[in-house]
Write a structure and sequence with these properties.
This protein has eleven helices and 14 strands. It is an alpha/beta fold. The protein has a six-stranded mixed β-sheet with strand order 6-7-8-3-9-10, sandwiched between helices. A four-stranded antiparallel β-sheet has the order 2-1-4-5, covered by helices on one side.
Length: 315
C-alpha cells in the first residue's frame, strides 16, 4: 500500500530525513517510532502529500504522491499532531464539511458521518461546539475526520500527545479497534503506543532508519543483550568514561550513585565492568543483571552509540 524509496528532505544545510526506504503492506499496523526530532512528522507529511521531499519516491496504492496527489489523498485519512478542527463548528457539521471535501456522495453523507461518530464514540457530543470539548474529545474529532471518508490508509501522527492517562487509554483502545479495517501507520515517540497497537515497528533516529522488524522479532534479535544495574558508593565522571570504553558496553546512564549499563550479555563484559569499578575504588555496593525490554532496546538504538551504524532496513 505504501512504498518509500530513497526519501530525503533537507531544510537548508540540515538533513531531516536521509534516504529512507520502507514499505507497508495492506492491512498492516506499523509503528513509526523515534525520539522527538527524529524526522517522523516530516516523513508523514511527505507521505500524505502535505510537503514535498528534496528527493526520493513515495507511492500509495501504486500512485505517486506528487504525480497523482488527488488519487493518493482519496485513499488516506490523516491525523496530524495538531488536529485540523474548526473550533467554531459543531462536531456533526464539521464532519459533514470534511466528508464533502473528501468527495463523499450526498446520498452517503449522513451514513458516513454517523459511522465515523460511532467508531470514535462521539455520538453524545455530535451537536456540541468543538471549542467546548476537552482535548481528548477534540483528538477524537480529529480522528473522526480522518475516518469519515472510510479511507484504505490511516496516517496517525502522535495521536495521544497532550492527553491525560485516561484519555490516552481510550485513544489506544480506539486505535486498536480499527485494526483489520484499515492499513495504519502510527507515528510516535511513546513506546506503549507501539506495544499496544502495532504489529511491526520502524525505528528512526536522526533521519535514518536504525531498525525495522516485528516486535517479537526485534526482541528476539536483541535478546542477547542485558542491562546491568550497578550501585556504587563513589560515582565519578572518570568511572563513567572508563565504563563507556569497556568492550561490550553499548550505553551507560547514571542517576546519582546508580548506573544502568546496556551490555552485550557476555560474562567477560560483566567481569570487566566489575573489575573496573573495583580498580577505580568506586565502592561496588550492588550489581544485578536483567534482560533488555523494548525501552532499553529503543534507548540503545537511538543513542549516539546505537545510531552510529543505521541499517536502513532490518536490524
Amino acid at each position: 500500500m505504501i512504498e518509500v524509496r530513497d526519501l530525503t528532505k533537507n531544510y537548508g544545510d540540515r538533513t531531516a530525513i536521509d534516504r529512507l526506504n520502507f514499505s507497508v503492506s495492506k492491512g498492516e499496523v506499523v509503528g513509526f517510532l523515534g525520539p522527538n526530532g527524529a524526522g517522523k512528522s516530516t516523513t508523514m507529511k511527505i507521505i500524505t502529500g502535505y510537503m514535498a521531499p528534496t528527493s526520493g519516491i513515495v507511492k500509495v496504492a501504486g500512485f505517486d504522491v506528487f504525480e497523482s496527489p488527488i488519487e493518493v489523498k482519496r485513499r488516506i485519512g490523516y491525523l496530524p499532531e495538531t488536529p485540523p478542527v474548526y473550533m467554531d463548528m459543531f462536531v456533526q457539521d464539521y464532519l459533514k464539511y470534511v466528508a464533502r471535501l473528501r468527495g463523499v456522495a450526498s446520498g452517503n453523507l449522513n451514513s458516513m458521518v454517523d459511522a465515523a461518530l460511532e467508531k470514535t464514540n462521539l455520538q453524545d457530543v455530535r451537536k456540541r461546539l468543538i471549542h467546548n470539548l476537552s482535548k481528548g474529545y477534540r483528538q477524537r474529532v480529529g480522528l473522526a475526520q480522518a475516518l469519515v471518508a472510510d479511507p484504505e490508509i490511516l496516517i496517525l501522527d502522535e495521536p495521544t500527545v497532550g492527553l491525560d492517562p485516561k484519555q490516552v487509554a481510550e485513544m489506544r483502545k480506539l486505535i486498536h479497534s480499527l485494526k483489520g479495517q484499515h492499513t495504519i501507520v502510527l507515528s510516535t515517540h511513546i513506546l506503549p503506543e507501539v506495544q499496544a497497537s502495532c504489529e511491526r515497528i520502524i525505528i528512526i533516529n536522526r533521519g535514518r532508519i536504525v531498525a525495522e522488524d516485528s516486535l517479537a522479532g526485534l526482541s528476539k534479535r536483541m535478546s542477547g543483550g542485558q542491562k546491568l544495574v550497578v550501585r556504587v558508593r563513589r560515582p565519578s565522571s572518570r568511572l563513567e568514561k572508563g565504563l563507556g570504553d569497556v568492550a561490550g558496553v553499548h550505553q551507560l546512564r547514571a542517576e546519582g550513585n546508580v548506573l544502568q549499563i546496556d551490555v552485550d550479555g557476555a560474562e567477560d563484559t560483566t567481569e570487566a565492568v566489575a573489575n573496573l569499578i573495583v580498580a577505580e575504588g568506586a565502592g561496588l555496593l550492588e550489581m544485578k543483571s536483567t534482560s533488555m525490554d523494548l525501552e532499553d532496546i529503543f534507548i540503545q538504538l537511538t543513542s549516539e552509540l546505537g545510531s552510529a551504524q543505521p541499517t536502513g532496513g532490518a536490524l
